[in-house]
Design a protein that fits this description.
single chain; alpha+beta; Aminopeptidase; 2 domains; 13-stranded mixed β-sheet; 9 helices; 13 strands; 34% helix
Length: 315
């Protein structure tokens, strides 16, 4: 087997692999991957995607890509056809992609979350390549289980288009100095947070945005919390982001936001809900456990910066 640059392949040549990938994530993560597969196919035909493809003879059996964004590379899916998983080939493919991304001139940061990875040994490769990492969990909850929205004194209202700037400000403030901010540049500045919110709400960056299950919380002094939700499939609702301003934390607002989103999912006829959380974020993890979420997949968040710069992870 050997690897070739992703730019040498058309969407037609990878059609079978992309179709198998979409089916795999739908089963493992309850995630309709059709829109992502279409975006990958479009990028292939424009020759705008960077990455590598593993071939057996002339048959593509695995691929991995990364996106370039202002001096940062974000590694996306690492997927292998079923017959080729767990044999070390995926790890070799990932190692070549990481080496390429780290060596690329002008690229001083590489990030990856291995949620969309079929490689069992992927996370160990990042440590050997000098990445800082933390464990994350993809959690899910059947919506037919009992759910009680607790009484609270917060005013929650549906998100509107003109709330996007406010939502970005809350998300940025809530992540200042956190582990997630150290590993994900998305939270580093108000501008990057605004781009993140726009991607979720306006460009379906994490499934189809659900305005009925997305809320802005208001206190006496103005907005103090936000929850952004989406549909990952016709059956599964996803909590994309929950953020509460520092001075409003530990007062039950996070519980009220998530419980309200779950109730909205149920009213729409969805059958499950999902979300992701960093395991070391103990307060958030305990909240999700209390609300009935349980583990579906373990993965990790990884980040690397070009020396002599360092990623400092808070204790």
């Amino acid at each position: 087997m050997h690897t070739r640059p992703l730019t040498e392949f058309s969407a037609r040549e990878l059609r079978s692999l992309l179709a198998e990938e979409a089916e795999h994530w739908a089963d493992e993560l309850l995630w309709d991957y059709a829109d992502v597969s279409s975006a990958v196919a479009s990028g292939l035909d424009r020759r705008s995607l960077t990455g590598r493809v593993l071939e057996e003879g002339e048959r593509p059996v695995a691929y991995c890509y990364y996106l370039l964004d202002s001096g940062r590379a974000v590694v996306g899916s690492l997927f292998a056809a079923a017959a080729f998983r767990g044999k070390g080939a995926e790890e070799e493919l990932l190692a070549s992609v990481l080496d390429e991304a780290q060596r690329r001139p002008g690229n001083d940061r590489v990030e990856c979350q291995t949620l969309f990875s079929t490689a069992p040994g992927a996370d160990a490769l990042f440590a050997r390549a000098g990445f800082r990492s933390r464990l994350r969990h993809y959690l899910f909850r059947p919506l037919d289980e009992p759910l009680e929205v607790p009484a609270h004194g917060f005013r929650l209202r549906p998100m509107r288009r003109d709330d996007l700037a406010l939502a970005a400000q809350i998300i940025h403030r809530s992540h200042a100095g956190t582990l997630d901010a150290a590993l994900n540049m998305t939270y580093a500045t108000p501008g990057l947070c605004r781009g993140f919110v726009d991607t979720l709400v306006l460009r379906a960056g994490c499934g189809r945005f659900d305005s009925e299950a997305s809320f802005l919380a208001e206190g006496e002094g103005g907005p103090i919390g936000v929850l952004l939700a989406s549909h990952l499939s016709r059956q599964n609702g996803h909590v994309c982001q929950v953020s509460v301003t520092p001075e409003s934390q530990s007062r039950g607002l996070g519980t009220a936001l998530v419980a309200s989103a779950l109730a909205a999912f149920r009213r729409q006829g969805l059958t499950t809900a999902s979300l992701s959380v960093t395991v070391d974020n103990h307060r958030a993890y305990r909240l999700y456990q209390r609300l009935g979420f349980r583990l579906r997949k373990e993965f990790a968040a990884h980040a690397w910066v070009r020396p002599p710069a360092r990623i400092e992870l808070p204790a």
